[in-house]
Amino acid sequence: MRLFAVRLIEGKQAVGFFWASDLISLWWMIDSVCDPGLCEYHQIDDRAAITWQDGVKATLGAGNDLDDETGEMPALDELRRELTFDFALEDYVTRKITAEWKKVPFADEPGSGSGDLSATADKGSTRTGRKRKKRTKSTR
Predict the structure, then answer these.
(1) 77: which residues sit within 8 A by CB, 6+ positions away?
(2) Which residues touch 35 (CB under 8 Å, ≥6 apart)?
(3) pLDDT score for 75
(4) What is the mean pLDDT of each run of 10 residues along the chain (140 residues)?
(5) How many other CB atoms are there within 10 angstroms of residue 93's CB atom?
């Protein structure tokens, strides 16, 4: 798996950090959040971590129960609230990254497969006609 920082090309708004095996998988993951054609990525090769510093009332891989009355999962809400980015992930949030960012290629473009990621050129696309909901800031 490779780790990617993804942002919108215009305005540099954060889209997310994605662990994906190749650019096709990355494209599909981004597509679940926003239009990949509007995004650029940078592969993170340094160590990176998402941590919970002071312990949380949630488990990993052991199952967490839904609240029967609200249908919500308190453990997941707490994990989201207490999330901390460390190492390279913190750098991408707090520092200016001057390394080259690459436009996310469409899943059907040559070079977007599971081959060498560095071989993917910064290509434009002729894909049009796709309507997307405007991304809004989450209020979680």
Answers:
(1) 140
(2) 130, 132
(3) 77
(4) 94 93 92 93 91 79 71 79 87 86 75 42 34 42
(5) 11
Is residue 105 within 8 Å of 123, Cβ to Cβ? yes
What's the residue count for the chain? 140
10 Å CB burial of residue 91 (0-12, 13-18, 19+) is middle
Contacts of residues 128-135 at CB distance under 8 Å and 24 or more positions apart, as own/partner, are 130/35, 130/37, 132/34, 132/35, 135/13, 135/33, 135/34
Question: What is the model's pLDDT at position 108?
Answer: 62
- Domain-wise residue ranges, the chain: 2-116
Element (H, E) at 93: helix 88-94
Taking a C-beta distance cutoff of 8 angstroms, is the pair 78, 52 a contact? Answer: no
